[in-house]
User: Fold this.
Amino acid sequence: MKKLLFSLLLATPLGLWAQQSIPLNDLSAFDQPSKNWTIEQAVFAKYTDTLFQVSPGSGVLVNTLRGGKYHRTDDLKSKMQHGDIRLLVDFMLPRGMNSGIYLQGRYEVQLYDSWGKKTVKYDDCGGIYERWDDARGKGKEGYEGYAPRQNASKAPGLWQTLEIDFQAPRFDANGKKIANAIFKKVILNGLVVQENIEVSGMTRGAIFDKEAPFGPILIQGDHGPVAFRNLRFETYEKPTASLGEVSYDYYTGKFTDPIVPTTKPVSSGKLPALTYRVIPVNNDYLIHYKAELTIPEDDNYEFQTYWTGSGELKIDGKVLNQGAHWFNEMVPASTFLKAGKHQLEIIHIKDFPWGPKALGLNVKRIGSRLVSLHERTSLLDPDAVGLIEVKANAEPVLQRSFAFHQGKKKTHVIHVGDPAGLHYSYDLKQGAILQVWRGKFLDATQMWDNRGEPQTSEPLGLTVVQDGKFPLALAHQAQADSTDLVYKGYRLEAGRPVFMYEWTAAKLRVEDRIQPSGNGLKRTLTLVGASPQKTDVEAVLATGHHLSILQNGLASQPGNFIEWKGATAELLKIASGAQQIRVPFSGAQFTYDLIW
Assistant:
């Protein structure tokens, strides 16, 4: 039960956040942009290109060399000023290029083409750039740079995502700094690369000479081409709800529903915040909390409750949350509240002896950070669970498990790890690649911890999800699925599996080899028993949306490039607005590379 609830918690967004957007129909959101910055509809670059190709229109912010040589005046500054902020952006870099995003124009998160680097430093993508002081002496000027935890960079020419949760420095009424700026979290391509990094001052390249409560977003534009889209943010300047003194009445007995008894309470009292710590027993009790809730402005407020057992949250007599839950299961409910004073009540019962006591209440308003209304120790941290890691350091490793793919649990999955640091998950039932990744191999904790629920494992590196479909079809016919396939097992070649299938629709046997090759995986599909005259088989290189053939032999899908030699590909429209990239076989074998 605990394992399932914890998994649900991990899948639940931690509170509301409002994604305001910086419009990219023109450059009006920026302060005096240089001629090198333009608004385009799309940008394209092969992973070998050092420049972009652009398609005119709107929606993409691009820095190109249209204005001549790059200068510091090409840095782009937003008109919007921010303090605390959560920023989410997509970016693209050509090969070898360099940029950066400065929070408040003072603290830089580095953007750099770090693709394929084994060891990363503060000046690699996702790093927090160093500070600089000439007075420290030659060779010691740079200090306090923070490298990303791991290399989470995709290949140049691919769109990448960056999320930054930033807490601005704090100042007293006299303007004296009383707390440093903190990068609470930096997430690059879905991987946490920085967490709770406190910076004692401005990083090198800041456009101001001192720190302040507010400043603009600054995009570095003097180092080379870079493109951005989907610039979204939430700032946290709005005041939020607060809770006054808490009174409580405590009862003992076997309570099955959160209904306050008419009998006299065993004890009553006052508390500075919500806490379960006034409850002297582990079960068979009911406690009724009441407090005045102050709402600063008319708005929607989300209340997140946690308890072990059953409970009910009411505001002004209206029930918001209720039910039986485990302590690490967050239950949200939103309501519109007018500015002023309101009456908040929580009734909590626990009628079973197992499990810890716990009680928590958070409140979230769009435009303000999540605030806890309970005492810190009243809500337990989830049990610490050590990482159970499967490594592939010396030789290829094969690990069977369940795995989630596009929201569905796959039961016939094998994960293949390689010492080259390039790994993949494969659906044996479908003959399909589910995901590929670079870095460490596999987190098998959910397979073995406690009772092994939900029996899944997760990649430990930069992961790109694939379409999860069998890669062959007969010309002008639908792609094969599991009803056309009979799995015949696999054999090992140099420790790596060769998967074998009977493809009944084509009356052929198929062998599927996948192995590391440079900065990607090479896949070779072999038709066993095909005659030289058989020409009706096609390789289906990708199925999905936003597919593009960049040139003959190179295509892209969200997350990776696809490269092959020889035959000309066709981009087909299929059902539900999706697309397919197909290439006809010539002979009995076809090879292509996945590059990310």
Remarks:
- The helical segments are 2-10, 445-448.
- The radius of gyration is 28 Å.
